[in-house]
Each structure stands twice: as C-alpha cells, then as structure tokens.
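About this split. The held-out portion is used to measure sequence recovery: a designer receives only the structure tokens and must propose an amino acid at every position. Recovery is the fraction of positions where the proposal matches the reference. Here is one held-out target exactly as it appears in the evaluation file.
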C-alpha cells in the first residue's frame, strides 16, 4: 500500500506532502511517512524542508479512530521531535484547519506560513483530551501563557491573522500556498535562516495569579471536566520546568484523559454526530433538490428562530403571519435576536444586517408560490396544522418540500391532507431555534428519498445536527422526556424536593435540573395539552397532579414568576415552601408514605427512565441506531457529552 506521505526535491527544498483524505489525520501510516521523509531529508541535497498537505486542510489532528486500539510506533511526540531536531530549517505551510496534532506538527517545524483563510487550534478539549505531542509546552514558548491557556482550554480555532499576532505563524501566503511557501522557504535559505527549535526557546515567566485565576474560572464553567484541569497543570509545567520535564507532565496528563470515561464519552459523541447525518437505507446517489428560498409559517419564538437559521446560512426567507400586527411582532423578535447576537459578539453588525435583509414578511400565502421549502411553525393544534398544509398544497409549486416543526403531532396525518405526501416530513427545531443545534428530521411513511436526502443535506448547510426519527408521539427526544418527567413527579411525591432533584442531576452533569427545565418550558403547556384529553388518556394522575395544582394556583413557571420555584427579576430560582405544601398534600391524596431519597437513587431512576424508553424507540425502528439517541439527548436536552449520551452511558455501566 503506498504511503500517504510523499517526499520530493524541488530545487534546494525537500518537500514533504501528506495526502490522507478526508482530513489528513495522523494515522500510523502518516506518522511513519513523516518520520521517513524527515530522515531522508537529513541525508540529501536539500537545504530546507517544506511540510504541506493536499486536500481541504493541513493535518487536522491525530487519527481519533486509532484511540483505544493497540499503540503502533512511531508515536507522534517522537515524530515531532525528529522534525524539530532536523539540522535543516523546516517550514510548515498551513491551509484549512490545522488542528490538534496537526498544529503541533506545525509547531515542531521551525517556521510556519499560512493562507489568510487558514485556522489553527487545539480542539482536543472537546474530546476530553489535551494536546499530547508537545503542544502545551511549545505553544507558551511562542505565544505566552494567557494566549496559550485561552487557545487550549477553549478548543476554539483562531484565524491565521490572530495566530500571526500571538507569534504562532510567521508569514501569510497570498495566492497558491504550495508555490508561495516554496518561494518563502527558498528566501529563508537565501537569507541564511537557521533552524529555530521551539522547545529551545525560553519559557515564559511563571505567573501564579494567571494559573490560580484560570483554575477558579474552570471550576465554575467546566466543573468536573478533568481535561481542563490537566491543561492548566501542563501549561504551568512549561513555566516551571525544562521542556523535557514539561513534556513528561503533559504525557501523564494526556494518558489520564485518554483513559478517562469522560474522553470515551466525548469521542463517542464526536463520531455519533457524524454518523447521525447518514441514513442507512438512502442510496448514496439520491438526487438533491435545490433549496434557494424558504417560507416559514408563523412568526412566534420558534418561527423567528427558524427563519434566522436559514437566513444565517444565506438562504432567503419569507415569513408568513395571519395579520400585519402579528407579522411586525414576529419581525421584531428577529430584530431583537440579531441585536443580541451582535451584542454578544456572535455576529458582526454587517453580518447581522446581511442575514436580516434575507428575511421578508407577508400575510399572503401567494408569496410562497416559488419557495423550495416551507416550514410550518404554528402552535401545537393538529387541525390548524392540517388547514395550513391544505393551503400550502394548493399554493406551493410542484416539488416544493412541506415541513412541519411539530414537537409531537402525527406527521403522516398531516401529510395525508395534501396531494403530495411524498414531499412532506417533519423538521423539529429546538428552542431557541437559531441557537440550538439539534434538528429532528421526522421521516413520514411516504416521505420520498429525495426529500429526506435534501433536508439532511440542508441541515448541514444551516449548521444543525440532524437526526432522523420515525413517526411516533414525541419522536425521539420528547418521547423520552415523557417517562423522565413522570419519574420526576413520582420522586417528588415519594420524598425528594425539587431542589434536591435538580441539584442531584446538575451535579451529575445535566445542564439544567428537570424542575427548572419544566419551569422554563412553562407548566401550562402540559396542562393545556392534558385538558384536551379524556381522563383515560391522561396517564397516571401521580405524573401530573402536582404541576396541575401549581398551574391552577397561577404558578405557570418562569413566565409567571413562579412554578416549582419562585423567580426574581433575573429569573434566579428560589425554593418555595408553598410548593412543598402542594407536594405534601398530593402525596397524602395518593396515600404515599414519604421517605428520604438519596441523590444516587434520583440519578439512577431518572437515567433509567431515559434508557428504557430509548430501547423501545430502537426496537420500534423510530431511531436508526442507539448513537442517534445519544446525539438527540446531548444536543437537544443538555445531557453531558462527557457521559456519551444515555444509551452509551448505560452500556458503560
Ligand atoms: N480522526 C479521524 N477521523 C476524523 C478526524 C480525526 N481527527 N476528523 C474528522 N474525521 C472524519 C470524520 O469522522 C468524518 O468521517 C470525516 O473525517 C469528515 O469530518 C495528538 C491527541 C477537521 C474541522 O479534534 O473538527 O490531535 O463521517 O464531517 O465538517 O495532541 O472534522 O466522513 O466517515 O467533521 O469538513 C484533534 C476533529 C484530534 C479535529 C473538518 N483534532 N475534526 O470538518 O468534516 S486529537 C480534532 C474536526 C489530537 C494530539 C491530539 C472536523 C474538521 P466520515 P467532518 P468537516
């Protein structure tokens, strides 16, 4: 098998080219090829060495598929030490995203150049890891402590220009990278540039205040994430020890992280997210329909967020409301959201204005005659949705895709009122729709392959993580939320308090405890849905007695300033003895003898309720695979990625 690394002499420059699609990951073959090439270069007529890559990007990191398998030498640290030990200057030429071990390779070179659009970074922390090939030791020697800590603990890439500013890249190459980098390498030789080994540069002065400050910040924002703590320790070692000692600290920290359940969970989610975008029974060559402009029915919170999701991806949107007043209110929500994004630095003023200009409004369905896709996002009234789909069926052009954002309703029943059920499916966004990444794509019985493939591809374009669901009440996520919510109510009646349940789940890793989630969503939503059902369809009264009593007492949740908690003007929750009284009265009504319940029992029963329902969802074929269920819960319901998702977690126990 030919090596993914080739070496050739171009004049007086030895050129090492890596070609390992799709992201030039540092597989064993690539590591071996780099080592062989740099060793060859030491013996030939080259006066300098250039490392570059083919394809979309410079090396994007270690080959994560190799983690957990038996180690095969040479290890990356040894390869990079050989590159840095070269007696001839080594130049790295960056494009795309030079990440993780890829950027460590660049730092082991003596000089670095990049095209303006290149990005560099250390995303290892998103995998529960840290740079394990000298990155925590070389980066501070070039960029200083704070920039290094920011770069490595954030996991976020920076631009080539930013990297130049902090000393990580030396030269920006305009135009063709390969030829430009060759010219630059030759000029370095001509100017007598010497090898410049990063590990031999003096380390920055130790500053205990920075490290203490970082540790305090991490304790708040990344509670319990071991990789973050290890990063601070490794970078601190770069300021208190020699390079050789510092890399030993880094190596131990890296192995601790690699062998941790947290990293196993986060690496599982990394691949699960990518696997979810694949539909097993869709032919690879399924034709895609163009989606140049979109209609959104409904300008409420969801409709506004959905409209923004498309506009932010450069797709024109026509938002439809029933009256001009409702339309202006909807456009006002969008305006406020963009102002917020600009204020938070998520969007520049210009970008926000460009996105905003792509959204127009109308009260006339005729304005949807030429759209390629419509997303209906009105409130959860099945008859209203059917009325809307009948209108859309009459107005929209043949081939237009008609999607409903419903959270629960029967997509097949909605499709059945149209003459084009094959063009109908669900696109279930999560609130706030312009921020939450999860998109449940609900495949109707008659949804065509082309429509499903088009929407899965569109999800990537609008930067959503799409998971295919079959049709059932609540699809994947909300269906699992149902038994989870029931178990919460039973725990309350049996003796746990709202704050005990929430604290136990948040300490375990959930982004928000269930009672705070229910207050955020609004207790009146479930109440209204239950009022529309006959008693024999409401389920076990224990599962809704307390929230119903709270709603009837005017406690609707955050929206009314009180639900399971009372809320101050900043929406901070405070436990309320009045709620405890309601719980006690309901427990008495059901004759439940209350008892002390451990946090461990709370966590076990609540996670079990998710996993049991997830298994049914799999057995019924509603989800394609268990990892899809993990993706839904991590991206849509605040389940900790470091636990890998409910199904992965259950499999680890
Ligand atoms: N290893 C193996 N496969 C990878 C990979 C990697 N590092 N990165 C991506 N893939 C696969 C991915 O599974 C998918 O496969 C395909 O490539 C396209 O990916 C030693 C220890 C580079 C920004 O964390 O962030 O270095 O589904 O859909 O949207 O100290 O991939 O097609 O079969 O994401 O264009 C650090 C992870 C590793 C980078 C490109 N590096 N990758 O995004 O494509 S640890 C990372 C990404 C490390 C060192 C440490 C993105 C991307 P398939 P994609 P994309």
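Reference sequence for scoring:
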């Amino acid at each position: 098998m030919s090596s993914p690394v080739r070496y050739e002499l171009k004049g007086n420059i030895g050129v090492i080219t890596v070609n390992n699609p799709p992201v030039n990951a540092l597989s064993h073959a690539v590591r071996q090829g780099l080592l062989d090439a740099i060793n060859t270069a030491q013996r030939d007529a080259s006066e300098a060495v250039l490392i570059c890559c083919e394809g979309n990007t410079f090396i994007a990191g270690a080959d994560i598929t190799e983690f957990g398998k038996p180690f095969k030498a040479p290890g990356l640290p040894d390869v990079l030490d050989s590159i840095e030990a070269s007696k001839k200057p080594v130049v790295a030429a960056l494009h795309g995203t030079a990440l993780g071990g890829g950027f460590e390779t660049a730092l082991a070179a003596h000089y670095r150049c990049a095209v303006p659009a290149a990005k560099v970074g250390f995303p290892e922390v998103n995998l529960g890891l840290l740079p394990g090939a000298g990155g925590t030791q070389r980066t501070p020697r070039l960029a200083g402590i704070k920039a290094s800590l920011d770069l490595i603990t954030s996991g976020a890439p920076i631009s080539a220009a930013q990297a130049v500013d902090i000393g990580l890249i030396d030269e920006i190459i305009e135009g063709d990278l390969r030829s430009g980098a060759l010219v630059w390498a030759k000029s370095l030789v001509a100017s007598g540039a010497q090898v410049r080994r990063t590990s031999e540069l003096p380390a920055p002065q130790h500053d205990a205040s920075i490290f203490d400050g970082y540790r305090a910040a991490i304790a708040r924002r990344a509670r319990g994430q071991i990789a973050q703590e290890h990063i601070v320790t490794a970078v601190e070692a770069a300021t208190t020890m020699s390079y050789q000692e510092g890399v030993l600290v880094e190596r131990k920290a890296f192995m601790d992280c690699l062998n941790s359940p947290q990293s196993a969970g986060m690496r599982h989610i990394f691949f699960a997210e990518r696997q979810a975008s694949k539909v097993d029974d869709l032919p690879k060559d399924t034709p895609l329909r163009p989606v140049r402009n979109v209609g959104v029915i409904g300008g409420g919170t969801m409709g506004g967020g959905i409209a923004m999701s498309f506009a932010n991806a450069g797709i024109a949107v026509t938002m439809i409301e029933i009256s001009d007043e409702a339309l202006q209110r909807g456009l006002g929500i969008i305006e406020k959201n963009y102002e917020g994004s600009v204020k938070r630095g998520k969007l520049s003023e210009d970008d926000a204005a460009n996105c905003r200009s792509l959204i127009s409004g109308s009260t006339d369905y005729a304005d949807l005659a030429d759209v390629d896709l419509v997303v209906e996002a009105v409130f959860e009234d099945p008859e209203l949705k059917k009325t809307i789909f009948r209108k859309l069926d009459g107005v929209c052009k043949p081939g237009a895709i008609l999607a409903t954002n419903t959270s629960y309703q029967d997509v097949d029943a909605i499709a059945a009122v149209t003459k084009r059920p094959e063009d109908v499916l669900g696109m279930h966004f999560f609130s706030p729709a312009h921020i939450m990444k999860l998109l449940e794509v609900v495949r109707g019985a008659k949804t065509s392959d082309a429509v499903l493939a088009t929407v899965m591809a569109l999800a990537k374009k609008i930067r959503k993580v799409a998971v295919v669901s079959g049709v059932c009440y609540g699809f994947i996520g909300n269906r699992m939320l149902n038994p989870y919510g029931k178990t919460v109510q039973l725990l309350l009646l049996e003796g746990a308090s709202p704050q005990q349940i929430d604290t136990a789940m948040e300490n375990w890793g959930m982004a928000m405890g269930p009672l705070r989630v229910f207050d955020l969503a609004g207790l009146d939503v479930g109440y209204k849905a239950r009022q529309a059902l006959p008693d024999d369809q409401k389920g076990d009264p224990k599962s809704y007695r307390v929230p119903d009593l709270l709603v009837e007492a005017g406690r609707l949740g955050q929206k009314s300033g009180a639900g399971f908690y009372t809320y101050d003007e900043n929406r901070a929750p405070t436990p309320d003895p009045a709620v405890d009284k309601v719980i006690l009265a309901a427990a008495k009504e059901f004759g439940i003898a209350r008892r002390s319940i451990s946090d461990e029992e709370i966590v076990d029963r609540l996670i079990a309720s998710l996993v049991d329902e997830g298994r049914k969802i799999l057995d019924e074929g509603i989800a394609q695979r268990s990892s899809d269920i993990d993706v839904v819960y991590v991206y849509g319901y605040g389940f900790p990625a470091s636990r890998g998702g409910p199904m992965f977690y259950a499999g680890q126990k």
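Annotator remark: The chain has a mean pLDDT of 95.
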